[in-house]
């Protein structure tokens, strides 16, 4: 029967001993050990999370790079196209201008030639008129110096006038 | 790895068994003429004792004397257990502080005034002696308990120091051995039983009882310590179960008490019917803890001792191989039981804490 009767002495010492054990282990063993274990677990969790974050960032960075590259390529294309357009425009503008210039010069030349021609004509006319007068004067003078001839001339002239 | 572990267990079990033979034979010390009584021998080994008897050497018992601390009618009386000269049959009378003390089956009695020797009734209870008012002796169980907490301090305080030293929290040395056990208690016992939010409060208690019970179970299996059967002692299991009960009761929330006194979700007659059952259940839970640990550990000791007693009952060496084989088998099982019982006590305590702090289901 006393196998299953708790002895007070042992209950007493067990209680005291257990409470001391609990107190000391809680303060000096469980707290630091559990703290270190959970700190480590936290650390591992954080490290994994930051690795994942870094991976995502890398991916983003990569995508960004790709995008920037794409943009740069597009920009280059656009710039090249602009440059080509510009070249074509300049060339055609130059051509047009040259054309216009040439036309204008030709016109000016023609105008100059026309006016020169007119001037020359006028001069020629006056010269011819002077010459004609001179010739006519000489002829008339010669005709009038001879009586016969004067008569003949008058006759001829009269004949002509009649004929007309 | 696993095979070598198994080999170690078997080897150590064999070692233990060899010692078992050693201490089983020492029970013959009563003399060849005396008839061997296995029941008395077993009870003597399973129960507590005043001295720490280690072994016999040339017919002399070698033991560690332990102090008796008694509160008697004449006040505090202390003396060494060696003064009984290993007698536990009430034959050696120690006179101290004006009183006569005898050791009857490892229980100290004070002889009544005028008595010079102990008289017994038919059930072998002393008739002319009484127990002292208070017996706070350092018995072999108390002694072994102190040895065990010294070992626990050694293990866990040095393990904790390892963590302080390393900044990277990498366990080394003894810490790498105890950490899996601590994490096991946390992740397999406390977290699932109590729940993620509240388990932290109970961790120190759960860890402490787990290792305290386990190490004392193991110490109980070491024969040179004379099978100090602390965790198979009802006083020890009673104390731990009582602490679990007190913690459960004080951490019980509204929901817990409602489930005991007014079970929700059942008709009123059922509520009235369930109330006394739940109230009984409140006490049965820790009582089952107390009896389970006590009975399992004591039974293991009794079986091993009984198998060894066969040799002396049959008085034949021929039976020895059978006894050794069987008790080896039981000892191996007992090695596993040491851990299992510590685990069960801890997990059930955690379960009770979890029930006491469980929030209402919606």
Helix-strand topology string of chain B: HHEEEEEEEEEHHHHHHH
- The number of strands of chain A is 0
Number of strands of chain B: 9
Biggest β-sheet of chain B, characterized? Answer: 4 strands, antiparallel
Low-confidence stretches of chain B: 14-33
Kindly report the spatial arrangement of strands forming the biggest sheet of chain B.
Answer: 5-6-7-8
Which chain pair has the greatest contact?
A-B, 35 and 48 residues
Separate helix tally of chain B? 9
Can you offer a commentary on this structure?
The complex is a heterodimer of chains A (164) and B (362). Chain A is mainly α and 164 residues long. The N and C termini of chain A lie far apart (189 Å). Chain A has two helices and no strands. By secondary structure, chain B is of the alpha+beta class. In chain B, 59% of the residues lie in helices and 11% in strands. Chain B has a four-stranded antiparallel beta sheet, with no helix packed on it. In chain B, helix 1 crosses helix 9 (320-357) and helix 3 crosses helix 5. The two termini of chain B are 48 Å apart. Chain A binds chain B through residues 2-15, 17-18, 20-22, 24-26, 28-37, 39-40, 43, and chain B through 43, 46-48, 107, 134-139, 141-142, 145-146, 149, 152-153, 156-157, 159-160, 163-164, 169-170, 175, 178-179, 182-183, 186, 203-205, 207-208, 212, 233-236, 238-240, 243, 294, 298.
Briefly, what is this?
The complex is a heterodimer of chains A (164) and B (362). Chain A is mainly α and 164 residues long.
Supply the key terms:
heterodimer, A: 164 residues, mainly alpha, B: 362 residues, 4-stranded antiparallel sheet, 3-stranded antiparallel sheet, 9 helices
Which helices and strands appear, and what pairs or packs with what?
The complex is a heterodimer of chains A (164) and B (362).
Chain A lengths: L7 H137 L2 H17 L1
Chain B lengths: L1 H24 L12 H9 L5 E6 L2 E5 L2 E6 L2 E6 L13 E3 L2 E6 L2 E5 L17 E2 L3 E2 L4 H26 L8 H21 L4 H22 L13 H18 L2 H8 L6 H47 L5 H38 L5
Antiparallel strand pairs in B: 1-2, 3-4, 3-9, 5-6, 6-7, 7-8
Helix pairs in contact in B: 1-8, 1-9, 2-8, 3-4, 3-5, 4-5, 4-9, 5-9, 6-8, 6-9, 8-9
């Amino acid at each position: 029967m006393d196998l299953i009767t708790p002895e007070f002495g042992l209950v007493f010492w067990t209680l005291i001993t257990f409470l001391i054990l609990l107190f000391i282990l809680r303060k000096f063993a469980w707290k630091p050990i559990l703290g270190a274990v959970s700190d480590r677990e936290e650390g591992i969790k954080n490290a994994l999370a930051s690795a994942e974050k870094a991976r995502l960032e890398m991916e983003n960075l990569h995508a960004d790079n790709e995008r920037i590259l794409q943009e740069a390529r597009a920009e280059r294309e656009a710039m090249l196209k602009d440059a080509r357009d510009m070249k074509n425009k300049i060339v055609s503008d130059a051509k047009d201008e040259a054309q216009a210039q040439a036309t204008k010069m030709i016109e000016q030349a023609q105008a100059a030639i026309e006016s020169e021609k007119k001037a020359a004509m006028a001069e020629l006319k006056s010269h011819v008129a002077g010459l004609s007068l001179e010739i006519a004067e000489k002829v008339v003078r010669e005709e009038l110096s001879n009586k016969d001839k004067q008569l003949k001339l008058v006759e001829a002239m009269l004949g002509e006038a009649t004929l007309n | 790895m696993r095979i070598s572990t198994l080999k170690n267990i078997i080897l150590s079990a064999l070692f233990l068994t060899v010692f078992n033979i050693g201490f089983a034979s020492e029970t013959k010390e009563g003399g060849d003429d005396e008839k061997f009584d296995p029941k008395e021998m077993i009870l003597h080994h399973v129960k507590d004792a005043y001295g720490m008897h280690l072994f016999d050497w040339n017919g002399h018992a070698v033991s560690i004397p332990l102090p008796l601390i008694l509160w008697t009618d004449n006040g505090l009386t202390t003396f060494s257990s060696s003064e009984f000269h290993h007698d536990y049959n009430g034959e050696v009378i120690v006179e101290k502080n004006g009183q006569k003390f005898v050791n009857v089956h490892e229980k100290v009695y004070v002889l009544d005034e005028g008595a010079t020797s102990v008289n017994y009734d038919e059930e072998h209870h002393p008739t002319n002696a009484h127990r002292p008012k208070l017996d706070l002796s350092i018995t072999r169980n108390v002694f072994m308990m102190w040895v065990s907490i010294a070992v626990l301090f050694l293990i866990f305080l040095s393990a904790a120091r390892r963590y302080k030293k390393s900044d990277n929290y990498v366990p080394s040395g003894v810490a790498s051995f105890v950490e899996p056990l601590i994490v096991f208690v946390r992740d397999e016992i406390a977290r699932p039983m109590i729940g993620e939010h509240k388990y932290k409060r109970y961790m120190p208690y759960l860890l402490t009882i787990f290792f305290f019970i386990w190490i004392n179970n193991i110490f109980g299996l070491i024969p040179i310590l004379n099978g100090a059967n602390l965790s198979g002692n009802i006083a020890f299991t009673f104390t731990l179960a009582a602490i679990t009960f007190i913690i459960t009761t004080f951490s019980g929330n509204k929901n817990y008490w409602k489930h005991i006194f007014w079970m929700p979700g059942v008709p009123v007659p059922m509520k009235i019917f369930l109330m006394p059952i739940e109230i009984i259940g409140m006490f049965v839970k820790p009582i089952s803890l107390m009896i389970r640990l006590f009975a399992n550990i004591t039974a293991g000791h009794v079986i091993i001792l009984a198998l060894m007693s066969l040799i002396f009952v049959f008085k034949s060496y021929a039976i020895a191989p059978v006894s050794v084989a069987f008790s080896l088998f039981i000892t191996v099982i007992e090695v596993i039981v040491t851990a299992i019982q510590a685990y069960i006590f801890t997990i059930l305590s955690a379960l009770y804490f979890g029930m006491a702090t469980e929030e209402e289901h919606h």
